[in-house]
Every structure is written in structure tokens, then in C-alpha cells.
Amino acid sequence: RSDFAGLWQIQMSNFVVTSGAMQRVGVCFTFLPILVSCHKQHLRLEPSSELAVSETQHVVDVEEAVAAAHHEYAPGSVLEFVQDRSYLSSNAYARMAAQVVTFPELGIRGHSSSVRHGIGADVPYDGYYEEMVTFPERNPRMTNIMMATIKTWLADLIVQGLSMRNAKSKTFDVPRSLVFAVFGFLYNGLVQWFFYVTILTALCPRAIEFANEPFHMKMHDTTGAMDLAKQVCLDNFVIAVFVYWPTFYVTRELLNGGFRRGLWFSIRNGIPKYIQNMKTDNLVNWSLWLPSDVFIFSCPMFMRLPMGHTVSFVWTMALSYMRGGEAH
Known about the structure:
Helix content is 58%, strand content 11%. It is built from eleven helices and seven strands. The protein is globular, with a radius of gyration of 26 Å. Helix 5 packs antiparallel against helix 6 (174-203), helix 6 runs antiparallel to helix 9 and helix 10 (263-296) packs across helix 11. The chain has two domains: 4-115, no CATH class; 139-326, no CATH class.
């Protein structure tokens, strides 16, 4: 390995909104290469992993390591680090990559954080507590399935418990509870991922980038705002009307004896019941989900479905109260 350690170049984009004309000006900053010359017997530099810098995280451990190496082993080297990255958009973070270097002699190693190209992220953690806290961000799909199943079942459980307490019902309805648990797993856990993450982000190309942008950039992102409006409309007027409600009614029929008679029997019985309640069901649905979707589709991508489940918990209790009692 030669004494010539490495060459790093960071390309970044900066969008500035002028106060007078409120115009967006793109400024591309190209920082001078970081050239480190050191003696082989004193210091060995190894590019170990890619590091994406988030809006709030500063890689203090890496910078301290470089500073220590600069002071101890390579005085006079040119080491430049960008301290303030608050003006960068999220897509700029995704495009920007820097090398984390290891200093074996110092016993210091920089920990990497993955580039967030979409939903999940390979977030570093230390210990069981951090592993648990970072699990939703590292495994968004599994988090979604678990939240969907538990949330939907628990919402019905609460409604049934309140009904028993108010003497509206004296027995716990196990088949009804099973309907909501299975519906939460199949539709809210699996099907919704396909629609809300795969389909909507394909139909709305700016969805991921807009969702991950800081709030002040969202206010000036007209293309992203248009994609936000498209997602809200597709969710409420297409997916809810033609997928969500039919799936709920058919699932309810299947778990109330339809398995013995076949899927077609459940469809023939479930769809007419939905058509009968179609107007009321969708009006109630829109009253909650139209405003909620604006917030849900604006939050960072890895939080989209968890935030949706938070609102959906309240909605599922309303659904259980409205239609859960019709399980038989």
C-alpha cells in the first residue's frame, strides 16, 4: 500500500430561495479534494463503508478520528469537512457519499449510516435498546405488518370491551375479533404496502423525494405538492372505494362461514352488502382520511405506514362500531 492515501471529492447541490424575488437558484459546490499524505508505518487509511449524512446527524466520531489523526500523524494535511449541511435537500443527501476511514493505531472506527434511497435504512446501533429503537427504520415492512395486525385486532378488542361494559353485549365475539385480526394482517399489512409504497411511488415519481424533504423545501416544491395531491386522491377515491371496502366485506363473509362454501359465495354475499352501505361508508371514511392523508403522505417515507396505522387505529374502532356488529 503506497503512502498516497486517497482522494475524496464531494459533490453537493444547494438550493437558495432569494428573499426579494423568491426564486430558486441552484448552486453547485465542489469541494477541493482531501489529500492526506502519511507514513505507512504510522497510519493506515482504509475506506470502509459509505456514509450518508442526515439533516440532524453530525458524524462526530469520524471527524474526531480524522482530527486526531491530523494532529498526531499528519500535521499539515489538508482536511476539509462540511459542518453545516442544513441547506441540503434529502435527494442531495442520497447523492452525496463520503468515505469513513479507520485508524487502527488510534483504536477509533467511524460507524456508517446508509444512504436512504427510499424507505428503509441500515441504521447503526449499539446494544439491545438501540437495536429495538432503530428496528422500525431498519425493517419498515416487518414493522408495518406487526403494527397492522396488532392495531386492527386491538381496536376491535377495545370496542367490544366498551360494548360489554355498557351492557350492549354480554359475550365476547371471537369470530368478529378474528375478522379484524386477519383483515389487519392481509390487507393493512400486506396489500397496503403494495399500494402505498410500490404503486403510489411509481405513479408519483416525486413521492419519496418530497416526503423526505425538510418542511421549508416542501413549501416551494410544486411538483412534489402535485404528487401529494395525486396520492391523496388515489387513496380516497380509488383504493378505498374499489379495494379497501370490498376486501373488508369479503373477508368478513369468509371468516363467518364462507370458507365452508367457497370464496365465490363470500364475494356474492359481501359485495352486495358493501354496495348497500357504500355511500355512508365512504363519506365517513373521507371525513377522516382526506385531511389525515395530507399529513401521512408528507412525512418521511419510513414513517408513512406507521403514521397511517396511528390514524387507522381510531378509524378501525369506528369501523368496528359501525360494521363489526354485523359479523353474523
